[in-house]
Amino acid sequence: MRLVQLTIPTGKRETILSILDERGIDYVVTDETSSRSYTGVTYFPLPDAAVEPVLDEIQDAGIEEDAYTVVVDAETVVSRRFQALRDEYENGDVGSDRISRQELQAEADDLTPSFPVYVVMTVISAVVATAGLLLDSPAVVVGSMVIAPLIGPALGASVGTVIDDEDMFVESVTYQIIGVVVAIVAAAIFALVVRSLNIVPPDLVLSSVGEISERLAPDLLSLAIALGAGVAGVVSIATGTAVALVGVMIAAALIPPAGVAGIAIAWGQPTSAIGATVLVLVNLLSVNLAGLVTLWYAGYRPESLFSLGETEQRLRKRIAGLVVIVLVFAVFLGGITYASYESGNFEQDARDEVERVLSQEQYEDYQLLEFEVVMDDNYPFRNPERVIVTIGGPPGESAPALADTLHERINDHADGSVAVEVRYVEVTERGAG
User: Fold this and answer.
1) In 97, 102, 275, 384, which residue has its Cα 20 to 30 A from 371's Cα atom?
2) Gap between the Cα atoms of 89 and 77, Å rounded
3) Mind listing the pLDDT tens digit for each residue in 140-153?
4) Quick check: 238 and 290 in contact, CB under 8 A?
């Protein structure tokens, strides 16, 4: 529910009040003596879904934008006529729950901080995320998402497009581009300082850190996360619920990957930064794409009907462009996913092969203790490099031919040559007696 406060310009009193009377809206009017431009101020409650059509009708009646309008939340309205309004405008669809176009625009503006604050908060969140990644601390990484100021620009571009506010669109796109660059650069500088001061081991292997390795080779599931974040972000801002929490989700799709890209650059591994950078870009574009589609589906349109056709054409072009770019990145992520799938199949086939060999009669005294596939560091498309097989056997005995057999059998399932390392561990069994 909303409470609308509207100033009444001189000569428009009867026009405004007649509109409210025709729609069955309860209102209160007070006289205004501070300015000759206004004769009074009217206050009236409205259901959320009624704010936009009522304000548009008042605007169409010739009320200039100079007559300011204030829309605030109303906790409770006790009125039979108000209940009739709710029955008229709230029909259970998406449009019934969304806020008005005017409130949406104001909300998007409020979520975007001033440029200096935006840059500072982005740098801080990137630095905190980088520290959390190097420490392999999920809690710290999550903390970096909370302070990231990304939800406003991420959703502002979509809002600006559907309501035909090109200034908002350009500003939001500029903020997003600068935010990604600033986050990666800040993460790289901080990681370089940390490494040069030996705060972390200088020979740290990035693939050995769980929080980092999972973002060096992202897969198609990352795309689902970004699209979900975009839809959830738009739904939250359009309905005025849980915006802060969804902002964390959007930051989760952008800040940690940007931190990983910066770390890879600081470690002198630009090829390792490719996967993380692609993840940042595809997530950013997916959030914008989901936002555009969701806002248009929710029924948001430009204020002027004369610009509706032009806005629809511009929207289609931007959606088509985003879809094409996202699909290109999706192919890249699909390649990583397929490489991971192939590696998983190889690991399973190689393990099965080892167990089949050990099940033979001549190796009945031996048993498989551990099996490990070591991947190479050719991010983002990693391949098996070495297989380590740990076998338990009787004390003082070994089977030299076993290593050759395992090497041959395992490489039958590999696309390239894979080294096979066989380790023997003496196993002594004692009877119960």
Assistant:
1) 275
2) 16
3) 888 888 888 887 88
4) no
Longest CA–CA span in the chain (Å) reads 109
Please confirm whether the linkage preceding 380 is cis (ω < 30° from 0).
yes
Model pLDDT for residues 92-141, shown as the tens digit of each residue: 555 556 777 777 888 788 878 889 999 999 999 999 999 999 988 888 88
Helix (H, G, I), strand (E, B) or coil at 46: strand
Cβ–Cβ < 8 Å for 420, 405? no
Helix (H, G, I), strand (E, B) or coil at 261: helix
Picking from 289, 284, 291, 166, the residue whose alpha carbon sits closest to that of residue 238 is 291
Which CATH fold topology does 103-303 show? Answer: Glycerol uptake facilitator protein (1.20.1080)
Domain boundaries, the chain: 2-97, 103-303, 341-426
Residue 166 CA: distances (Å) to CA of 106, 252, 310, 424: 15, 27, 12, 69
Give the CATH class of 2-97: alpha beta
Say if strands 367-375 and 384-393 run parallel, antiparallel, or are unpaired: antiparallel
Q: What percent of the chain has pLDDT over 70?
A: 93
The angle subtended at Cα 348 by Cα 347 and Cα 352, nearest 5°, is 115
Opening angle at CA 378, ends 375 and 382, nearest 5: 45
**CATH architecture of the domain formed by 341-426:** 2-Layer Sandwich (3.30)
Decide if 2-97 and 341-426 have a common fold: yes
